[in-house]
Amino acid sequence: MAGADPNDANTTDGTAGWPYGRLDANTRVPLYHQIFLILRNRIYGGDLIAGCLVPGEQDLAAEFRVSRITAKRALNELADAGLVVRERGRGTRVIKRPPAPAVTSSIEGWLENISLMGISTTARVLAFGYVAASEDIAHALDIEPGTEVQHAVRVRSLDGEPMSYLVTYVPAEIGSQFDRDDLDAQPLLHLLEMAGVDVASARQTISATVADPEVASALSMPAGGPLIEVRRVVCDGSERPVEYLRVLYRPDVYRFEMSMRRVREQEGMRWATLKSSPVPAGDG
Question: Do 143 and 81 have their domain in common?
Fold first, then answer.
């Protein structure tokens, strides 16, 4: 493997202590970069928050069954990306929080598109349960850190081919009204409405990222491959957050379309957004 250290184990599927701790020894992505991607996703996913200590070289070497040299390169890459600071004798500490959602948009049309998606796609639940909200999850849902929330991980497929990896958090009092089997059968927005939630608006960001080994395995793609990342906070009619979603899309089977119109205003001409919707690639 390119970039692999000769002291690293051939089988690198260590998962002790953290979720999503599996490396792919068959990809051309170096092991240290795979570890970097996993740690970066832990930071942006809220598992490692600002001020939190990142596992050290020895802990990472044990977790991923790699050499300390490989673990050190991963931590150095994390520091080079501006996500952590490394201090001799004090360890490696997270210094950057994931950016808050910056776009506010109407939810109009989303439920209808998801209804059509639910007909043409299938979802499989990989993980389901209740956890204490981390600082970032609590901030997104406007609740106190440590409050119980429903946590689910799903993969949605189109014609049997994985297209998206979804991680959702819902306040426990809402999530308790449906279970794992319900999530296997219906889109979450449908379940929220069936639970009496008045889904009214959403704030979301759309950006790009790359697949860590766990996500890559779930989406049947190479580790390090490109993904479309959407982070969305869904609110009810009173602006209460009812869902926090992070979804990773394979760009070869999924895209976003947006209709725009040139309009004249007092300040001059500008582009106005008419409608945006998610569309599986190839559906026109």
Answer: no
Q: Choose the final residue of a domain: 60, 83, 98.
A: 98
pLDDT in tens, 51-98: 889 999 999 999 999 999 999 999 998 988 888 999 888 899 998 655
Structural contact between residues 137 and 46, judged by C-beta atoms closer than 8 angstroms: yes
Are 170 and 258 found together in one domain? Answer: yes
CA atoms of 77 and 2, how far apart (whole Å): 16
Task: Choose among 119, 176, 128: nearest CA to 153.
Answer: 128
Q: Looking at the structure, do residues 6 and 89 belong to the same domain, yes or no?
A: yes
Which range marks the domain in which residue 42 is found? 1-98
CA dist 106 to 53, 64, 129, 170, 259, Å? Answer: 38, 43, 30, 20, 14
Same domain, 78 and 166: no
Q: Which residues contact 190 (CB under 8 A, 6 or more apart)?
A: 111, 114, 115, 118
Q: Domain of 45: which CATH number?
A: 1.10.10.10
Nearest Cα neighbor of 97 from 143, 36, 51 is 51
Rg (CA), the chain: 20
Alpha carbons 162 and 43: distance in angstroms, whole number: 25
Structure tokens at 7: 């002291």
| Same domain? 110 vs 230 | yes
pLDDT tens digit string along 194-218? 999 998 888 888 888 989 999 999 9
